[in-house]
Design brief:
2 copies of one chain form a homodimer. Helices cover 23% and strands 25% of the residues of chain A. Chain A is α/β, with parallel strands linked by helices. In chain A, helix 3 packs parallel to helix 5.
């Protein structure tokens, strides 16, 4: 399995100013008290935030758009725009590019991550997202929209707890997360095995498996924090001692030694570079996090 | 959760002479070419081995006994005896004690580990097994018979990949494995979560999850080796950094940081004390291991 990483997908040099990545495991509650979406709104600046929702991944955009319109409106956001792309040329529309240029946050809905990436990858929309994110635009995505944020993306796969090469199909993602592979609906669709298999293919990666109604925020200081009702499972291959995934038949369980595993719930934080995990001092009675945990403080570019 | 470890369950001082522990994940093939049972026969000395099968765990001992009679006979073993205990007084029968006294290996069938332990725990049979194992008697067990070998035993529980305190019920086992909790039918019944939960309760333990038709042998040098067609999943809590299993409701997923995980297949070895894992030099074209890997060489007591 060989996946080419496109140029420009590495973390930017001036990491202090880039926006936060906010990945959701799917099926987040979409009402006023939604912990997950309310955190996304908070990090984008609260009710005054200018948000753009891209339903590109979806094959039923009307339904998806209606839900997010209700959810973000209930959270007090008025400056909301929605765009959908079915063809690659849709990703050059001037109104779309202007909306992204002026947004505080862009949110990718669920659907098919392959549709999302094959439609917008390499388009003017892709370029402006990359450029604006580098200067502070926050990027959120749920389900397929979360998976697509990775540089190496899980395109498809089968559930089960066993790591088999045949259980996962990888492809190049949008590249906003260069060393992390995101999976979603994680516990609900029993996707531990396919995430393990993806990490065994390149143990320098970390796998982030998000349960439904659960999100992680990765800020510009590479600090990950968890919000929502489920857990974030982290599969860390960086200390792997051995595997036979390249030797056994694709359908056979792969053996391995030295995988590290963490399961974090709301309020726990993880240093992507340090590997350091912090458990909240108090048991989580709320899943709300202060905004300064989600967004690196200091001057943010616009 | 508090479990009292009985006296005498620690590893004996003179560990070089104790017998091998041979735990099977259940549903091992029971015909002449059975890799798993054939390894048990080999480690007990081959066709000349004197074997005693205890069907105590089973509620249908006739069926279970018939299968093992066919299997061990097909492997050339003639000196076979079978005993069953439904009442605690059955565990003092002189013929039973004499058979164990003279056996090279004793094998516990599947069934209910709670029936097995509650029937023979603290009986003369229990004492003589312990005493003879210390001097070289090999002990095998499949399914419930494997679980019961632990000092802290998984008595019952529910499948799923999520660690929840409510998913596992622990009780004191026979105590031949003091720092290891064994689980079986592991992949087939999706028991990752209950083994994780057991280890979170006391991270000094290691969880060994055996797939069906798969076994591990633990020799007197504390070297573990894997045989059979599936894998042994090792969940190692000894480097755990944090968990909230004591804080969250019993039915909620427990969070944790720093779990280590290994999945080993036939031919892989694991040092129980060193944590060192060795991958076989050649991809396993056979699941047979040399006897000197299974049994520590040197003078063995009788």
């Amino acid at each position: 399995m060989h996946i080419q990483i496109r140029e420009g997908q590495a973390l930017p040099d001036n990491a202090q100013r880039r926006g936060t990545i906010f990945a959701v495991g799917g099926r987040e509650a979409r009402y006023e008290n939604s912990a997950v979406l309310s955190q996304f709104v908070s990090l984008c600046g609260g009710p005054k935030a200018r948000l753009t929702v891209l339903s590109t991944a979806s094959r039923e955009p009307q339904r998806s758009v209606a839900r997010y319109r209700v959810a973000f409106s209930a959270l007090g956001v008025n400056d909301l725009s929605f765009f959908h792309q079915d063809q690659r040329e849709d990703a050059s529309h001037p109104a779309l590019l202007a909306a992204v240029e002026n947004a505080d946050g862009v949110f990718f809905t669920g659907g098919s991550q392959l549709k999302l990436v094959s439609t917008i990858g390499g388009t003017p929309l892709d370029s402006i997202l990359r450029e604006r994110h580098r200067r502070g635009l926050h990027l959120g995505g749920s389900s397929a929209g979360a998976s697509a944020l990775s540089a190496v993306m899980i395109a498809r796969g089968t559930g089960r707890s066993t790591a088999r090469l045949s259980s996962v199909r990888l492809s190049p993602g949008l590249g906003f997360l260069s060393r992390v592979i995101v999976d979603q609906h994680f516990r609900e669709r029993d996707r531990f095995g396919r995430l393990l298999a993806a990490i065994l293919c390149n143990p320098s990666m970390r796998g982030f498996g998000l349960d439904e109604d659960t999100a992680f925020a990765l800020n510009a200081s590479d600090q990950v924090s968890v919000v929502g009702n489920g857990t974030l499972t982290i599969v860390d291959g960086t200390h792997l001692e051995a595997t036979n995934i390249d030797e056994v038949p694709e359908d056979s369980p792969a053996a391995f030694a030295g995988m590290r595993m963490h399961v974090l719930s709301a309020g726990w934080t993880y240093g992507l570079l340090s590997g350091r995990i912090e458990k909240p001092l108090l048991p989580a009675t709320t899943t709300r996090l202060p905004v300064d945990v989600l967004v690196t403080s200091g001057k943010r570019g616009r």
